[in-house]
Amino acid sequence: xxxxxxxxxxxxxxxxxxxxxxxxxxxxxxxxxxxxxxxxxxxxxxxxxxxxxxxxxxxxxxxxxxxxxxxxxxxxxxxxxxxxxxxxxxxxxxxxxxxxxxxxxxxxxxxxxxxxxxxxxxxxxxxxxxxxxxxxxxxxxxxxxxxxxxxxxxxxxxxxxxxxxxxxxxxxxxxxxxxxxxxxxxxxxxxxxxxxxxxxxxxxxxxxxxxxxxxxxxxxxxxxxxxxxxxxxxxxxxxxxxxxxxxxxxxxxxxxxxxxxxxxxxxxxxxxxxxxxxxxxxxxxxxxxxxxxxxxxxxxxxxxxxxxxxxxxxxxxxxxxxxxxxxxxxxxxxxxxxxxxxxxxxxxxxxxxxxxxxxxxxxxxxxxxxxxxxxxxxxxxxxxxxxxxxxxxxxxxxxxxxxxxxxxxxxxxxxxxxxxxxxxxxxxxxxxxxxxxxxxxxxxxxxxxxxxxxxxxxxxxxxxxxxxxxxxxxxxxxxxxxxxxxxxxxxxxxxxxxxxxxxxxxxxxxxxxx
Length: 514
What we know:
It contains 22 helices and 13 strands. It is an alpha/beta fold.
């Protein structure tokens, strides 16, 4: 029996934090996790990361507690449409629907009844693709069916107390018009941001001016939408949410919503503040801008598990999310996966990615090696590439074949789009030429059936006898720049076993005789 209390990876630490909360409160039949998504633009990779990370915490919590859980993937699709995204078609059409609920905005892709429904569908689609368990919940559906009614009543009953905590956080002009309730215009369906003149806690209505006339409106059944910080607190209370993480940009909002949640008699959820993803220019990735990498982009260039690896790593540290990070994350994932074969340690990232089920990938073939084979074999035929790889490892399990073929397919795309256009082969000077010829000599005297380690040791011995002996990294950089046209490359011993001794000598000679 494994004692999961001994493990200290961040999902376990978060799960332990939640467990302490549960132990201090009344027992619940089911512990509720939540993630929130604003479908004002196409779901981006950060949304996926939040659901994936929360599911990791959820899985660890289940291991620690044995309790049942659910994860609500909440779409705030009744929120007002504030800005036309840059990365959608028919933008002129959308500009006429600013301040309308997202489920009342036409779908610019002409596939669904609304833009909100389109984006919800994309969210569900990519969460299903990664087999992440969740329960989808639409804000529009929850408001209009009365699911939130009892909690909304508490908001109105505590109206003044809520104002007292919200107003000090607002600028002077905003304070004059602020209300937790946004009425929905009955004729147009537009969300109105108007001052509330009076509240009625018996009929649960608000009064406000519209077109110069006082209007009375019920706050129930979707007739009003709550301002989002109040909405967040209301949602926690209505669903009994125990855990929800959020980005650093929502730190102050979490504090304020927590105060509102307590005012209406509920306890705010445990929380992890994670850092934001940045694009290659160190700017926050945005749904409306469409900058950074989309999930489809990543999966064009690497296997799904590598994206999960990127999300797992250091959630409280800001990370740049651009195409250059993909090969490194793929190889880090494979390295951890190999270690899982030696020790099925629940603090191993791949243990979390695979939910304690070891896929049993035992091969030393990694993505960088595959990319370099693709770059020198001058073929985009997966079978030719696999044929070369079999020079290193002749027999593969079905799992290993699946991984390697997937990496080959993605590697062909990555090489074509990012490596090939940027290849820059170094022309060696006479001293460098002499060193590289000695590399060829050392490889030549070894038997073709020598091991990868023997080839690696022979090459390394050349470097130790040159001007690079104090900085062997620059010695290998020289080889990579001359032979592969890049500053970095594969472990050369492994590459020779794959590409074969004779072909490798031929390859190096071809770069020396230009």
